[in-house]
Amino acid sequence: MNEIGEEENLSLLSEDTVKIEEYIKSIIPDAVNIIIENCPNRCVNRKNPDKTTINSGIITLPEDYVKLIALQLSNWKRMVSKTYPLDSEKYKQQTNQCTTAGVNKPVVIDYFNGGKPSLLCFPPENNISLFVYEAKYNSVDGLSGLNSNDPVAISICYMCASLVYSIFENQNSAKQMSDISLGLLTQQQNAV
Question: Cys bridge to 165: 13, 17, 121, 170, which one at CB 3.0-4.6 A?
Answer without folding.
Answer: 170
